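Annex B. Sample input.
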Amino acid sequence: RQISEIILFGSSLEEKCSARSDIDIVIVSPKGLHDLSSTKGFNNFMDKLYEFDMTQEYDRLYFRSIEEIEAKQDKVPICKELTRKGKIIYRRDSY
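Annex B, continued. Sample output.
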């Protein structure tokens, strides 16, 4: 398994989003970032992401699990935002 979930968050989900706004995404994967970034599937995903618009900027965060995000929500503000306002845009089927 490479990518378990992709979560969209930040200004791209709110009315304050503008043409200059970046797109904030969280990539949830049991693999560490170093291992994930060396896989063909991840690189294909990133290529497709940038095919939409080569000028678009993306802020990417990485977590190993949703449980990690939930466990950190009391101490890490971005994790609290993710659990409250984040929108899952991709979830790998468990079977």
